Each structure stands twice: as C-alpha cells, then as structure tokens.
Amino acid sequence: MKNQKKWNEYFWAWLFVAPTMIGLIILNIIPIFETVRLSFYKSGDFGQNDIFVGLANYQRLFNDPQVWQATWNTLKYTLLVVPITIILAIILAVLLNANIKGKHLYRTIYFLPMVAAPAAVTMVWKWLYNTDFGLINFILGKIGISPINWIENPQIALYSIAIIGIWSTVGYSMILILAGLQEIPNDYYEAATIDGASSLNQFFKITLPLLSPTLFFVVVTSIIQSMQVFDSIYLMEGITSPAYNKTVSLVYLFYNNSFKYSDKGYGSTIVMLLLVIILAITMIQMKVQKKWVHYG
Asked: Which GO terms describe its biological process (predicted)?
C-alpha cells in the first residue's frame, strides 16, 4: 500500500512537471546543442547539405572587426542601460512603497511599457526621434535648439536606443524591487527611528542590505536581457544606416548572418561568443555577490 501511494505521488509529480521539462528540452536544450553543432559547419546552398569546416568559423570570428565592434556595442549598451535602470527602479520603488495617494495607479503606469510589444514601443520612439517632424525635435525647436539626428548620427544613435531600453524595462525592475521592499519588516525602521536614524541612514543601513538579494537577481537578469538586445536596434537601424556599425549588436549580427546572408554556421558561432561572454559575466557576478549580498 505504501509503495502504491509512493508511485502515485511520483506519477503525479512527474505529470505536473513534464510540460515544463518537455518545453525546456525542445525550446532550450536541443537548440543549444544544435547551435554548438552548427558552429562547426558552413551552410550549404539553399540551407541544405551543411559542410563541416572545423574551427574555420571561429578563426573567421576572431579576425572579423565587425564582430568585435558588435561586442563593444552590446557591452556599451548594457553599461548604459543596466545601472541607470536599476537606480531609477530603486528610487521609484521606494517612492511607491510609501503611503501616497494613487500609488497603485502609478505602479500600473510604470509597468505598462513592459506589457507593450517591443515592436510597437520602438515604432513610437522612432516617430518621437524623427529628425523632421518628431515630437522631441519639435520641443527642442521651441527652445531654440537645432534638430538632432537621433537615429542616424553614429555618435548619438546608441544612446537614443539605450533610452528606449531604460524606458521599457524600468517598470519591470521597479516591480521586483518593490516586492523585495515589502518583505522588509517595519520593526527595523521603527527601531531605527527611535534611535534617531535619518531616512537616508535607514536607506543605506537597512533598506539596501536587506534588499540586496532582490537587487542581485535584478542585476543578473537585467544584464542577460541587455546583452541580448535586438528588437529596438533592428527596427531603428537598417544595414544601410550610417549608424549601423556603431549600433549593431551581437544578436543583430547573428540574425543578419543566419537569415539575410544564409550562413547559419557563422551565425551560430557569433551566438557562441555571446554565450561565453554572458557566462563569464554571470560567473563573476556569482563570485562578487558574496561580498555585498546579505541573506537574512
């Protein structure tokens, strides 16, 4: 009887877990191994009869200046977006965690960009950035500033795209941080207030240390998400744009090689480079987190 009950528990446990596991295997695990395999091949004509080329794709990658430019663009975008997003998210979360009127409405408004389709968001921003009739240049013109070419100027374009990234993700990070703030017991703040600690001291001595596990999760996931930026750059910058080389990301380069130039082997090699970079950054974060993340 005990064995029967035990097997029933195993059966139902695996039954409930199975859809997720099957999805992970089909959509994540198998594609990873297929990408590794393809990185050693050159795509044949019409995508058929791939030719084994060994390490030739990797040799080409290390000698391709466009790949290293795309790597720098991706890292630069991440360095622009992640710190600013997290700082803004912390400020907004702290403000909206206070007892203010309409805070639930504000939370919804800030989270809305995360719900909207990335393509729709980018198209709206593309209109805002338009040199001739965009709203931003219209407002700047009213105060006597000449129109700025936000999209095609190689010196500005990546910053323009980073603004979209910050605007799109700050709401999501804010919600996660807000959830972390609500887990902090009020007893700590009451005791600190009795001891005469200012609001600023309470923030640095109580809020940040107790919020550090949530912040660590937000930092890791934000970096991974930023390193995979594609939609906004793809929709903003075509391959003929003067700012293309200064904005193309590794995922965009992978897309172009795999689908526009029909070279899935080289595209897979670019993805392997991105995977190695993300793994390296994540491992460094896992090591460093022991010094600043406080669990309980």
From this structure: transmembrane transport
Residue-wise pLDDT for 90-129, tens only, equals: 999 988 888 777 777 877 887 888 788 888 888 899 999 9
Helices (H) and strands (E) in the chain, counts: 15, 2
DSSP three-state, residue 257: helix
Check: pTM over 0.85? Answer yes or no.
Answer: yes
Q: Rounded CA gap, 140 and 160, in Å?
A: 15
Counting every residue, how long is the chain?
Answer: 296
SS3 43: coil
Distance separating alpha carbons of residues 224 and 32, to the nearest angstrom: 16
Q: Is 202 helix (H, G, I), strand (E, B) or coil?
A: helix
- The CA distance from 129 to 235, in Å, is 13
Torsion of CA 232, 234, 240, 241, to 10 degrees: 10
The Cα–Cα gap between 174 and 218 comes to 9
> 65-97 vs 208-227: helix axis angle to the nearest 10?
150
What pLDDT does 98 receive? 80
